Amino acid sequence: xxxxxxxxxxxxxxxxxxxxxxxxATRTTCANCGSxxxxxxxxxxxxxxxxxxxxxxxxxxxLAVAAFLLIGGILFMSWFHYKFVPLIVK
Length: 90
Description:
Blueprint: E1 4-5, E2 12-14, H1 16-20, E3 28-29, E4 36-38, H2 48-59, H3 63-84, E5 88-89
Antiparallel strand pairs: 1-2, 3-4, 4-5
């Protein structure tokens, strides 16, 4: 995967994996301009698919189905965070 664009200098210097681990209280530094980059507070909505998967696992009796739900929740949460949560300068 290609790196993501810094919202300050517009160079592709933010690794995708690093963005997936960013939260409103954490930030990373752009390798090009040195600005602090994070995500907005509303990005916490990306946790909803994972939280739904956790609740759903309590209702199923099968360990395989529970594992499938958790992995699906994590994958959907990651995709949502990657596609819809913007990087911002903090």
